[in-house]
Amino acid sequence: MKLGRLLPLLLFFTISVATLKAQPYFNGPWEYESHPDLPFLLEEINMELTVDPSVPLIKGTADYLISSRRPGLTQVVFNTSDLDIGGISFGDDEADYRISGDSLLIHLPDTLGRSEELTFRINWESSSPYGIHSDVYGNSWTSLNPQMQNHWLPIPDHPELESLVKATFIIPADKEVVFNGEKTGEEVLSAEQRKVSWATAGKVGVTGLTVAVGNFVQESARTGVNEVSLWTSENGLLDEVRNGVLQVAVESIKQYESELEFEFPYKTLQIIVLPDHRWEEVQAGAGVIYLYQNLGSLGAQLRRGITAQWFGNYHRYIRPIDNRYEFLKALVVGSQSEQLGEGANLESMKQWNRSEKAVEFMKNEFQKNVIKTSLPELVQRFEGVTNWEEYADIWYDETGAFWYGVASDMKLGGENESGSSVYKVEYLYDEMGGNLTLVFEAETEAVHSLVGVDAVEYGFTDTTRSELTFTGERDSVEVGISSGIEYLTLHVTSDQNITLQEEKPFMFLIRQLRNSDPEVQIQAAKQLSSYSENPDVQLAIQDVLSNEENAEVRAALLETLAALTSGATGTEETFLSSLNSEKLAIRLSSIRSLSNYPENDRVKNAIRNTMFRSEEDTVFVTALETYHELSDAEEIRSVVERFSGNEQHHRALDALAFAVAEDSTRESLAIADRYALGSYSYEVRSQALELLISHEENEAYWEQTLEMLLEDRDPRIRFQALNAVRHLSSKTTVEMIRARLNEEMDPRVRAKIRRML
Fold first, then answer.
1. Left if phi > 0, otherwise alpha if psi is -120 to 50, otherwise beta: which for 302?
2. What is the dihedral of CA 712, 716, 720, 722, to 10 degrees?
3. Are 48 and 61 in contact (CB under 8 A)?
4. Whole-angstrom Cα distance, residue 315 to residue 385?
5. Which of 140, 225, 340, 566 could form a disulfide bond with 56, CB atoms 3.0-4.6 angstroms apart?
6. Model confidence over 553-590: pLDDT tens digits?
């Protein structure tokens, strides 16, 4: 980083140790310092930023107007992680400043008295992977994760600070820019660039500032005096989805304003839809909400983001990622069926999903109701940085109980805490004597309470029903049956989660195929596959197939027939003729059945063509699994290259997973390397990286490749890449990850490194 003129040595001897610490205003991962030393206020920030989303890079110049909160102010401290400071000035005079760790110490030209104001300018640029995100779709946006603002903007990075902000952006001519507040003007500078201005209507918390640049189109709606704008890529959402999102925003703002008895905190709301969450724990800034298409329901995300305008931005927290504040938002939104962020490994989403369930299932109804009815008072009484203890004081005044939290009080009802028990059921049928005994034997953990079973006997002329019970590891039950019984069906009626695996007599199953209930027919078809030695089974199944119209039943019959014929020459015609069925279940069964013909080139080509032409993922995956059974690694690798050439990268990697496990050459691994290190979406890169970690054991390869992966812009890739150290020697591992620990700034990645040391 560039340094300004050095401060006189005596000055630094007089600066307190507390001021010189590396990260003022921070108290730990995702947590800000409580009651930091802040001797000044930010009154206004007026900045001009040139944004190049292709790098991504931000070059900025900002004028900061501050006012002193104390007499005798001689210096201010900003945070500047990963920023290249080009200079600081007071008017025409260059400022004295020093960078110590993540702290930017600026010596003021004159001592400020209390309430006196001063303006200074900072020039900087940043391409920090911690503060600036980019994706393969040409979008670039800044992080809202705690303590990451100062990776793209010189700022005292703490929720206590708020400021009026005016910003001018110079961006590519074909891009749009979105910022806090509202757009105030735009100007075409050239064929390549244009200038766009934004401004906030009032002061906003600096930790809620964010900017996004991309190929956005805007649609707007109004709710009262507030304007809501939705920014999406031109073909990013269907028109009906786009309209639905705007409708949810308008309706939710009205509803929450009514429930909280408090108007929406900002004059405008900007909603930005992006494909990938980039591991962002915080999705809502001051009057800005990011909706990520790989986090689940856009409507559910939006409702959560709107409540975060009150509980997260109007009220700001030194621990922004906290299950207690998620619970407050969930109380406003109410119970929703959609779970968010499944598989995203986002702590904030896990807390939200748990809080959503707690709203419905929380057993301490008294606590829930007290908190919910107090929300209007909480919003009206506090502003700016607030904490749980201040909320709890209000509840204490009402109840005499000080609630430190709610998470420990959440008992999520409706969840099945016991696993499934499996019982084998043997039919001991004496046809001559007309007797039937059912023997229930536990295959997994036994159930020691009585299990109720509904037994239905189908006879020549009528149907009779009886109730049976069994219990324990093994139990025998006599069943009263008529002389005209054709077959029997069993159905567990108790609340226990129990699966019955029945071993019925052959003729029971043959007759059961004629039942009018598809589920009963399917059960019989599946069980008949165990009678492979009986020559009458194939004839019976073919007979039923000739007249059966239900697709699910036909599919079950085809798979049973495949098990019985076991790839016999000439039997493939039945399955090949069903490959083009309009019914998905029949196509899938036919594809699976054809795996029994490994030496048949006609079958192999038919499956290959089905795989390439399939639109449904289930058909593709099933066809790929069958093709793997029929082909060698080289043939599967050719499939990979074809999908890759058509930019069907996920399908290419699905096929590569089969090839890389059997490829004796390194060609499949080379393809995985190309994907893992290339400019692809995170999902594609992560899938390829997992293949490499699982199958590439060459230490020299990992010594070189891991260095690059641990410097990747995407923290999820860095996090995942650490799993590859198992291929390195202990000495190399320690040296490499210790060196990385000194550079890494994402607390999740740092925590994983520490666990490995």
1. alpha
2. 50
3. yes
4. 6
5. 140
6. 999 999 999 988 888 888 899 899 999 899 999 999 99
Q: Is 272 inside a domain boundary?
A: no
Q: In the structure encoding, which two tokens stand for residue 110, read together? A: 């004159």
| Per-residue model confidence as pLDDT tens digits over 274-329 | 999 999 999 999 999 999 999 999 999 999 999 999 999 999 999 999 999 999 99
Nearest alpha-carbon partner for 728 in 704, 752, 753: 704
Cα distance between residue 660 and residue 658, in whole Å: 6
Q: Summarize the chain as % helix, strand, coil (round to 5).
A: 40, 25, 35
Which residues constitute the domain of residue 34?
1-203
Residue 298 domain flag:
no
Q: Is the pLDDT of residue 536 over 60?
A: yes
Distances (CA, A) of 555 to 286, 527, 561, 713: 55, 14, 10, 48
CATH number, position 136? 2.60.40.1730
The DSSP code sequence of 302-334 is HHHHHHHHHBTTTEE-SS-S-HHHHHHHHHHH-
CB-based contacts of 183-192 (< 8 A; 24+ apart in sequence): none
Task: Look up residue 357 and give its two tokens.
Answer: 């369930």
Residue 437 host element (H or E): strand 435-442
Tokens of 155: 């700022």
> What does the pLDDT read at residue 338?
84
Whether the predicted pLDDT of 62 surpasses 50: yes
Query: Could you give the angle at the alpha carbon of 322 between the alpha carbons of 332 and 337, nearest 5°?
Result: 45
The Cα–Cα gap between 490 and 516 comes to: 16
Query: Among positive and negative, which fits the CA dihedral 386, 389, 392, 394?
Result: negative
Largest CA distance in the chain: 111
Residue 658: inside a domain: no
Judge contact between 305 and 264, C-beta under 8 A.
Answer: no
Last residue of some domain: 142, 176, 203? 203
Residue 637 belongs to a domain: no
* Domain-terminating residue out of 203, 234, 267: 203
What is the overall mean pLDDT for the chain?
Answer: 91
- As given in the structure block, the two tokens for residue 279 are 């591991």
